Amino acid sequence: MAVQNKDGTLHTFTYTVGGTTYSHDLTPGATTKFLVRLDAAGIVAYVCKPHAPGMGGTLAVA
Q1: Count of the separate structural domains present in the chain
Q2: Within 13 Å and on the Cβ side, how many CA atoms surround 6?
Q3: Are 22 and 47 spatial neighbours (Cβ–Cβ below 8 Å)?
Q4: pTM of this structure
Q5: Which of 34, 38, 41, 59 has the fewest Cβ atoms within 10 Å of its own Cβ atom?
Q6: SS3 of 48, please?
Q7: Structural domain containing residue 20
Q8: pLDDT tens digits in sequence order for the chain, 62 residues long
């Protein structure tokens, strides 16, 4: 997965799968690439830890 942080503030991409929480730092003004292992279909919620609960979304896993 690749996530682009278009502004000058550090963000995170934080989510929980199978009871384990993962968090990736999103460097200001850069694109961050990381692997996301999803073991089942469904909806996975993600947030930015410094800006939660207002900044986040969901991934639909088929």
Answers
A1: 1
A2: 0
A3: no
A4: 0.88
A5: 41
A6: coil
A7: 2-61
A8: 999 999 999 999 999 998 999 999 999 999 999 998 888 899 999 999 999 989 999 999 98
